[in-house]
Design goal:
Distance between the termini: 53 Å
Number of helices: 1
Largest sheet: 5 strands, antiparallel
Order of helices and strands: EEHEEE
Radius of gyration: 16 Å
């Protein structure tokens, strides 16, 4: 399993082999989260099945938390 982080090309994804284990995928997703990445929703971009039957799973930067501040009441 490979985690790809290419900030210059804005390309973030995981390549998972056809025989990957869910525990391994969870570990890679946890590692991606340390870099501020999360899975894209399936409706945004579905995983891609590659010619060698591996799966390309797309990631995106995690949205920065917003803080609302009351300015006037």
């Amino acid at each position: 399993m490979t985690l790809v982080i290419d900030e210059e090309e804005y390309d973030f994804h995981i390549i998972a082999g056809p025989d990957h284990r869910s525990t391994e995928l969870r570990r890679v997703l946890d590692e991606a989260a340390k870099f501020g990445l999360e899975l894209l929703d399936d409706d945004e971009c579905e995983p891609e099945i590659m010619e060698d039957d591996s799966i390309k799973i797309y990631l995106c930067p995690t949205a920065a938390p917003t803080t609302l501040r009351l300015v006037a009441a």
